[in-house]
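batch_manifest entry 22 of 60
target: DUF1203 domain-containing protein
source organism: Novosphingobium soli
requested by: lab member K.T.
priority: normal
notes from requester: please return tokens only, no post-processing; we will run our own comparison against the previous entry in this batch. if the run fails, retry once and flag.
--- input ---
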Amino acid sequence: MAYRILGLPRAGFAPYFGRSAEELEEMGARRVIADADRGFPCRVSLEDAARGEALILLNFTSHDVSGPYRSAYAIYVRERAAQAQAYVDRLPPVFAGRTLSLRGFDAPGMLRRARLAAQGEAGAPLGGVEEAIAELFADPTIACIHAHNAAYGCFAARIERHGDDR
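--- output ---
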């Protein structure tokens, strides 16, 4: 099963960049400075910010459907993030060492199946991320998978079928 993982489009967050703390607060966001090299995952670059790097913390609607599974939560976006290239049949650095909740949605946006997984743990009790992606996409009703960081619940990335005409 071929899959593709994309970072969120940087342009969608441009209105937040370069704003003052007061302006960000009015927009429901805030600027934070990473105090470690891990723990501040950027949804545009699909990499963790480095210690001392500025990020915008904001609410993002990751599953914009009119049904009951509509979902929004806080995410980080690095102010100087470069747009990630598509990760085709490989996992982005931001997944490393994190337990993920993988949620398989059908075309209308209804949740069909879900799995917990961790990168690099094939055969472990939770199973590996790639194994879980393949398992979810084996169900032909699943149109896409949303990866969320299991501990904090925030949206990590969208996983799509790749090279499949479904």
